[in-house]
Design goal:
Helix content: 40-55%
CATH topology: Arc Repressor Mutant, subunit A
Number of domains: 1
CATH class: Mainly Alpha
Largest sheet: 3 strands, antiparallel
Length: 157
């Protein structure tokens, strides 16, 4: 896998670039971007980011996230996202995806309350999703996405 050259940039903990606040002096931008891009490698994790970024208070119950993502994947309304598709998404989120997003400081997952909140790197992750969609569409010869698309989860995964 080719990794883009980021350069030898280092940010101190006082730096606040698109929500990056938790970096120590030894951590560089390349490491943070690598971790965030890894988190973005699954469409369900991207859906979590987009849903949280577009929520009113940046805080959603796990059940609501699972229902919304199952609805996106099945192309149905959230009210009809039940049964096996819902259970599959719920289990995948709780067993795999939310811990990956939490490790990258994109979300804060409270497993006791079953809630997911926006973490310090949510803005960076949401921005990277939009930029990657724009780059892909440009390379495919499509028109650029509307920046308002940040508020809506992508259904083309």
């Amino acid at each position: 896998m080719l990794r883009p050259w980021i350069g030898p940039f280092r940010y101190k903990a006082s730096t606040n670039f698109a929500g990056i606040e938790s970096m120590s002096e030894n951590e560089n931008l390349s490491d943070v971007l690598s971790e965030v891009y890894h988190a973005l490698s699954a469409s369900r994790r991207c859906h979590v980011i987009q849903l949280l970024a577009s929520s009113r208070d940046g805080n959603l119950p796990l059940r609501e996230l699972a229902r919304e993502i199952a609805a996106i994947e099945e192309d149905i309304s959230p009210d009809h996202a039940t049964g096996e598709p819902y259970r599959n998404v719920y289990n995948a989120l709780s067993q795999t995806h939310l811990s990956t997003l939490s490790d990258a400081d994109i979300i804060i997952y409270d497993s006791n309350r079953q809630t997911v909140a926006a973490g310090p790197n949510i803005e960076l992750a949401a921005l990277l999703i939009v930029l990657n969609q724009a780059a892909y569409q440009t390379l495919q010869g499509d028109s650029l996405p509307d920046l308002g698309d940040l508020d809506r989860p992508s259904t083309g995964d």
